[in-house]
Structures are given as C-alpha cells and as structure tokens.
C-alpha cells in the first residue's frame, strides 16, 4: 500500500496524543528506550503552551499505510537561529519510523517540502525548538538504557539517514562516569587554588521559593544562554521560555544537587544541576502520570533514589572558561 502523509493539527490535543503515543508504541518491547511524559511532549508541541512558538514555526506529520500509523516527524524553523547564522535551515525532530525505506523517504520529504514552502534550503536534525528539547541521533551504544534528556533510537535509523544522503554535522558524546569513594586530592587542591585566585565561592541553595522569587533561577538560565552560545545550533532561550523552565523544573529539583560558583559580589559564574536518574521510573510509568506513574517518579525522586545521577546542565560563564 502507498504511504499516506497526514499533517497534525498542533492545536488538537487528541491528534498530538496519537502522534506522541506512536513514538512510545514503536519501542514497546525495548528495554533501553525511556518514554517521555505525554503531557510534557504535548506542551512542547503545542503553540498554546510552548513560548518557543514566538520565534519558531513548526509542522508535525504522521505516515500511514493501510490506515495504520508507521512513522512521525516534526519540521521546525527557528527564525532566531537562522537570522544569526544567515542560513535557511529547517530542523527535523521527534522523528520515529518503522524500518522501511518508503516510510522514511515520505516523512523526510514532507519536512523538506514544507521547509521549501517557507524558503528553506537545508535540513538538519534531530533537533527541537531549543536545546532544552531532545537532540541528536544515537549511532552506537544501542544496548545501553537511555536518559530522560537524550534520544534513544533503533540501529536502523542512522542507516536510513546515510541512505537518504544525510551527512554528520556534529558529534555529541554521552559518557558514564564512575564516582570514586573520595574526591582526589589533586581536584581539591586545584579547586582551592582557583577559588583563592579569582575570589570565588561555592554556594548551595536551600529554599525553592526564594530561588524563584529572588531571580536566581532566572539568572541561572541566562548564564546558560551565555555559556552555550557557541554550541552547534544553539538557540538562546527567550525570557518567556526561561519563565516556563523555571516554573516547570525548579519545583522538582533537589537543591542539594544544584551547585553555584559566585564572585565576591554574588555574580553567578558557574552552575551544575543534576538529579537522580528517572530512566527506570519513566519506563514503569510508560509516559503517563496517572493512574500510577506519579508513584514511580516520586519514589525515584524522594524515597528510593537510583544509584545513577544524571548531569543535566553544567555551564561556566565564557570569561571564566578554561580557568580550571
């Protein structure tokens, strides 16, 4: 049967749920895939909920064969990044499909044609609206469980990309670090020297309401904007996006796992944010908070923390980078 491409109405929660569910169902029996939370994906893809639509255009597509869903993809045009780089690039993201040439070709052709209609000349991905969305395509390590912040995909994905003529633009490397029983003396010594040399201090946060009300949370995301600016395809977060991330993520963080480095005047020059791995909890929740998904997530966050810690965001202000 021929492949039918259907456009998704991003204002329709029903259509978005079906779009998101396909991406989870495709990995139903895969022990390494970590499903996203459905409500979080809907918020990302909905113009009513995602402030990124103030600077982006997007269109999602689903592929059907014999009225059965066989693939999905979203085309995104980030106008701010294109203006900064002088490029006319359409991004593709949220891409999943069965191992079938016709399906892959139809999906990527849909994004390419949509991009051309908006004056675009190049296509790149997988990328989202901003760097806070899932990015990149797995090319090795298919036997390792994914994280909530990264994309897991089948080994046939990069094979199809090469067949369709795509070439690698960047390497993004995910690493697992084994923590020693004690911090090495060398690291302690360097830390002390750097703090004295530049008059820096380590600050721990203690009260979430104060972190938000005082503006520290917003300053952290502005620091990330400045620190990540040179990175591949980086899209600076707008103030509206920062507001959203502060309201969504700060309440669920354990502040013991957030560390700031400040100057004597209280200016933040570095931040590290981590949290217990939610990979297994999300697998048990199957992407849903109700009826029992909340229990698995709360258990991992509060009661029975996993032994793996996810390093979510680490940023150093440009003028303090390469200083130890």
Task: Describe it.
By secondary structure, this protein is an alpha+beta fold. 35% of the residues lie in helices and 21% in strands. It has eleven helices and nine strands. The protein has helices at 13-25, 38-45, 79-85, 101-117, 156-163, 185-198, 208-213, 216-228, 239-249, 279-285, 293-303; strands spanning 3-8, 56-65, 68-78, 89-97, 122-124, 200-204, 258-263, 268-276, 309-316. A five-stranded mixed β-sheet has the order 1-2-3-4-5, with helices on both faces. A hairpin with a 4-residue loop joins strand 7 (258-263) and strand 8 (268-276). The termini are far apart. The model has no long low-confidence stretch (mean pLDDT 92).
Question: In sequence order, what are the helices and strands, one letter per element?
Answer: EHHEEHEHEHHEHHHEEHHE
In one word, what is the shape? globular
Give Rg in angstroms: 21 Å
Strand percent estimate: 15-25%
Name the poorly predicted regions: none
Strand order of the largest sheet: 1-2-3-4-5
Strand runs, count: 9
